[in-house]
């Protein structure tokens, strides 16, 4: 398979809140949101099945943190921080969210001819090159009514052009229909390498904002390790490291040509 033109995606999914303590559950454990996860050896995760990573050397930590990630500037409005679900896996393992055998891991959906696509996009193109970006999202629970509907907030880091079929992208954010109808995301695809032994990728984000109530937000940061070329992801105001996209996955993302902050 030719991976050079693929769109590499990572989405933190927003699902229903189910508070629960971490306990043993059918050889797995329950995460803080009640989902069952398996503590998988960090070097045996699905990412290493990717033929492009056959000779990849695992990177436990980034060589350094970028300057922008150290900023403590917050929204001018009074907000509180939301958090993604966690699990207590041993060091050297990662919590892989368990999916049922009937889950749609790779699927596609065609929008109807009368569908309406509404979105807002902020775009940054800073010459000559960009090596990282940060986004803080307000977290809500929008309602979707049809299988081909979704609501999403994301940061999108890209290089290349659609006209030349060499677009490479990294996408991070939250959305509301858990991708039941579209795509292959998170740890279900062999690409992203998780390093955190606690963050549950694809887990629930809580608490949620309420009209005339508390407003919650979550911060994501993505940057390129200049020494190794891998693109790292961190979450929250404390910049908890989640993992990275290996440099070998990309044909044209030695730097970003464009960063988009998108809402659908």
TrEMBL record:
Statement: the UniProt record of this protein carries the keyword Signal: yes
PROSITE patterns: NEPROSIN_PEP_CD (PS52045)
Leader peptide range in chain numbering: 1-22
Protein name: Neprosin PEP catalytic domain-containing protein
Keywords: Signal
Residue ranges of every copy of the Neprosin PEP catalytic domain listed in the record: 111-264
Keyword Signal applies: yes
InterPro entries per the UniProt record, alphabetical: Glutamic_endopeptidase, Neprosin, Neprosin_propep
Pfam entry (one): Neprosin
